[in-house]
Amino acid sequence: MIHSLWMNDQMLFSCSGCVSACTLVSFSTVLGCHPCFRLNMFSKGTKRKFSDGGEEISEETLVGARMASSYSLQRQSLLDMSLIKLQLCHMLVEPNLCRSVLIANTVRQIQEEMTHDGSWQVVTEAFCSAGQSPSERLVATEVLCRSREQDAEPKLFSVISYEGCREEEVVADETLCSVSVSDAVSNVCLAGSIGQCWEKSDVETDDEALEDSRLGSGEDEEIDTEDEPSREGPKTIGQVFGTFEIKNSSPGPDSALEELFSDVDTSYYDLDTMLTGMQSAPKMGPYDLLDSLAPSHGSSSIVSAPNCRSDLNELDHIMEIIVGS
Amino acid sequence: MAGAGGGGNDVQWCFSQVKGAIDDDVAEADIISTVEFNHSGELLATGDKGGRVVIFQQETENKSQPQCRSEYNVYSTFQSHEPEFDYLKSLEIEEKINKIRWLPQKNAAQFLLSTNDKTIKLWKISERDKRPEGYNLKEEDGRYRDATTITTLRVPVFRPMDLMVEASPRRVFANAHTYHINSISVNSDNETYLSADDLRINLWHQEITDRSFNIVDIKPANMEELTEVITAAEFHPHQCNTFVYSSSKGTIRLCDMRASALCDKHSKLFEEPEDPSNRSFFSEIISSISDVKFSHNGRYMMTRDYLSVKIWDLNMENRPVETYQVHEYLRSKLCSLYENDCIFDKFECCWNGNDSVVMTGSYNNFFRMLDRTQRRDVTLEASRESCKSRQVLKPRRVCAGGKRKKDEISVDSLDFNKKILHTAWHPQDNIIAVATTNNLYIFQEKVN
């Protein structure tokens, strides 16, 4: 019963990447005008176990749960939209820094809130554990915090969208939170308190939102340490800003060249070092993101050589400029 | 009888002129990107996305007769900026004119500063209505005469000719900004001016092009920590040591250049505490200030954020003295406006000559006049429908929800592609210039 009701809610929202205008109006209503809503929704309702299908569920809990699911879905959608906007900077003309900063701050805000809710754990878990699965549409893109060498703060991973997650891990009992996903990705601390236990409604919401997609095995697999990947990883916010400094240049081994660029802002390259710490992150170029999002239910594939592809894109772009076509 | 008005009686606005192509098919290069009256109001300059500057001049002959309206006609057109290519970054530099600022007139010629994203240029606009005739060595058409045929000498004289307006670039201030220039402001000392980009503000001398002083730098050491950018900056109209700059977080900083060479530390910080009941994910975006303008008397400044206009007393930092809602009915539509990027539109605002009324633009080619003394506001529209000469503009109303009354337009019918971002008010008279996408409307006060 609950399942079907939530399915109905799900129907209100099409794929997270492309939402119709009328839907957005209802988004605004929730996201724009009811700020205290989030606090209220978590104070209502009771925790339910998955196995307790036969229990009486109060009307209030139901309504609260539905509102909770709609709010978090809408928030997720806003997050997706924001990340797309950040990624789609057209690089022929220099993108607008003010706009990028504002969108990045919005993303940060959403992630902070999701961290507090504990719903961020679903995202990070799915992210961490899905690295091996080929059918996974998971796209990890942004790293917002400082590089890992500097601080002990948990890093926040933002996931644009993901279809399917390991149901066995997500839908579980309260001990889910204690699953040491961090073993898989040693450099990452899951944001938020691991000991937090979610309400069942929240968990199942995400499950439903993912439309019962299942993934392969549920065990945490060892994530191999990759060699230093190409610099053209998923663009982080810093990378976006970093492009304003200098673009398309790799650290030159030539010392004379180094001198020439000695006053160039090198945060771009530091970013790259940090990115390599994201071992489980499937590296995708900016356009792959779009591909993976646009068809909401289509089959997806992780581009096998995203690095080469984005390099090729750049090469094409440069050739275009030179040729003047 | 056109006073510096606005206060006292209700001003009725009439259509005067419209400039620009009539058809709806807008060429990208024709999109107007800035509008500015000069200090006397005689000249009106517009810049467009194609890098051109068009200057209109007010006809002076009819000013003696109050019934007749002075019209603005094209005075000069020139290509200010060309598209460039930054080879190091492999990026195009747009030729769009972001701002035009007139210099106070010192001699017969007019000077203005125009800027695109990276380069500021000082243009001299001069008139030539006489030309020398009667050279000894040259024919009238310029060919040289055979020296052996010259038997007499004469002194060349100036004879009248058709008026020719020449625009020539006198200075080019380049290579000082890594980020996109959003503001320029001429100092009251008549020697210097500032230019502001997203992260830095530079101080220039009008004569010196090969160097500038950096006076504000908010670039963090680590670009990943960037959360705030500069959105606008302006010099105080009288105090040559004072300037303000606004940020994307809704703060305004007033800096005194006497305090230190680098004005990273502000003298005053103007910020209104956030209203917790209105908090949403879009709160920061809509608090981002798109324009800041000092009042003519230098006591106040006005800021424009997405939904409101705020008037600040320079002596009070913790909140504005006046707040006006421009289009509050958009608050429930913020998510849609975020999706279609309209939420990032940068609206400008302007004062009238005696600081009693302020004006700013909105969507659907609406613009708002906010009367500070009478605490009244009116919404007007710049449209082709009300283009009859001297036709009085009818106030427009937007229906936020519920039952739509006659003559009201509902929020969902608003055309968000028709936005009025740039407006200018004549420094003395009630003449306003309102730029729609590619048209410039001039409205004047109705004179009975």
Automatic annotation (TrEMBL), chain B:
<dbReference type="GO" id="GO:0000159">
    <property type="term" value="C:protein phosphatase type 2A complex"/>
</dbReference>
<comment type="subunit">
    <text>PP2A consists of a common heterodimeric core enzyme, composed of a 36 kDa catalytic subunit (subunit C) and a 65 kDa constant regulatory subunit (PR65 or subunit A), that associates with a variety of regulatory subunits.</text>
</comment>
<keyword id="KW-0677">Repeat</keyword>
<dbReference type="InterPro" id="IPR018067">
    <property type="entry name" value="PP2A_PR55_CS"/>
</dbReference>
<dbReference type="InterPro" id="IPR001680">
    <property type="entry name" value="WD40_rpt"/>
</dbReference>
<dbReference type="GO" id="GO:0019888">
    <property type="term" value="F:protein phosphatase regulator activity"/>
</dbReference>
<dbReference type="InterPro" id="IPR015943">
    <property type="entry name" value="WD40/YVTN_repeat-like_dom_sf"/>
</dbReference>
<keyword id="KW-0853">WD repeat</keyword>
<dbReference type="InterPro" id="IPR000009">
    <property type="entry name" value="PP2A_PR55"/>
</dbReference>
<dbReference type="InterPro" id="IPR036322">
    <property type="entry name" value="WD40_repeat_dom_sf"/>
</dbReference>
<comment type="similarity">
    <text>Belongs to the phosphatase 2A regulatory subunit B family.</text>
</comment>
<protein>
    <recommendedName>
        <fullName>Serine/threonine-protein phosphatase 2A 55 kDa regulatory subunit B</fullName>
    </recommendedName>
</protein>
